[in-house]
Amino acid sequence: MNAAVTARAHTNIALVKYWGKANTDLIIPQTSSLSLTLDQFYTETTVAFDEGLTSDHVSVNHQVLTAQQASKVHNFLNLVRQQSSRTSFARVTSVNHVPTAAGLASSASAFAALAGAASRAAGLSLDRTALSRLARRGSGSATRSIFGGFVEWHAGHDDLSSYAVPLIEKVDWPIAVVALILDPHHKKVSSRQGMQNSVNTSPYYPAWKQIVADDLAAIKPAILAQDFTTVGETLESNAMRMHALTLSAWPPYSYFNGDTLTAMQTVKSLRHEGIECYYTLDAGPNLKIFCEATNVATIRTRLAQQFGADNVIVAQPGPGIQFLD
Ligand code: 2P0
Asked: What is the mean pLDDT of each successive set of 10 residues along the chain, which is 325 residues long?
């Protein structure tokens, strides 16, 4: 057996969303996107290639996956084997410190950690750009989780040109993201399926591409200037316009539930009371509320009263991929 390698990667929340592929095999997106890596949600993955195995062996959160459940991981390991001299199967052990498929983008941290651990265990020595490209082949949002802080994924046009770059890795800005878990269960429409449906059937898709270009142009200088209001307004409108692509698709669908709408109203009430904060949502009903650190306690208390303290998690900007040896 070759040496085992363990990598830890954090998840990220997109402030300007990725919602649609131009190339589904290579996972080249229709647009660029921009995210913030979070410290509270991460995946630790250990990979060892082992000549003694007769198939890839994958466990997630201490449960062994069936061949069907592990097919994405197996396909990903095939890519790593193609890029390296390894031919043997691998043992993969992964633990998510994030509510799986709760719309907290666990595939981002999972494939970023897998890209790091598998490539190193296979004897490859990839720089972070190459790691970002490799992670992209597992899941689009994983492209960005190689880096910490504010990260932009340049859409590019092929495998070589589509990767993430950090905008600010060490965030010296007292901000936080309050995650509100409204439903921890698996989503009914996967992101992969949902975004493809939007690309293929939403008449608003061309407008979305222009919105993303405009929002990126607005949010990048605002982040650099620590202009909280512009960042907040941009991320909230971007999220709602992404979700408009689900309602305008055919057949239409939505990731919102009733509590999602109630929680949006709470954020608006807080703003009305002078507590400036903004929400975003991914492919699930849970809100992530972007706020200044000085307002975290007030927001947390309000959400805990309404939705239960266990459902409120406060995150700060987090780091890029780390190797644990
Ligand atoms: C994002 N999401 O930018 C967007 C916003 C969800 C909403 O990327 O098919 O799991 O593996 O590339 O990355 C979630 O989709 O999809 C996602 P695939 P992924 O974070």
From this structure: 92 98 98 97 97 97 95 98 96 82 70 98 98 98 98 98 98 97 81 96 98 98 98 99 98 96 98 98 95 98 95 95 93
Give Dmax over CA atoms of the chain in angstroms: 63
- CA of 87 from ligand 1 middle (Å) equals 30
Same domain for 189 and 165:
no
CATH of residue 258: 3.30.70.890
Q: Report the share of the chain in percent with pLDDT over 70.
A: 97
Compute the distance between CA of residue 78 and CA of residue 88 in angstroms, rounded to an integer.
10
Distance 46 CA to ligand 1 centre (A): 23
Examine the domain organization and report whether 213 and 164 are in the same domain: no
What CA–CA distance (Å, rounded) separates 89 from 52? 8
Q: What domain range includes position 35?
A: 5-171
Residues 134 and 180 in one domain: no
**Cis peptide bond prior to 251, omega within 30° of 0:** yes
Within a domain: 321: no
Q: Judge if 296 and 194 occupy the same domain.
A: yes
Domain for residue 40, yes or no? yes
Q: CB under 6 Å to ligand 1: residues?
A: 14, 17-19, 27, 33, 105, 107, 139-141, 191-192, 282-283
The answer to whether residue 324 sits within a structural domain is no
**Across all residues in the chain, what is the average pLDDT?**
95
Residue 322 belongs to some domain of the structure? no
pLDDT value at residue 210: 98
Note the pLDDT tens digit of each residue in 255-273. Answer: 999 999 999 999 999 999 9
Residues 6+ apart with CB under 8 A from 90: 47, 48, 49, 50, 53, 56, 57, 77, 118, 121
Task: Mark whether 75 and 13 lie in a shared domain.
Answer: yes
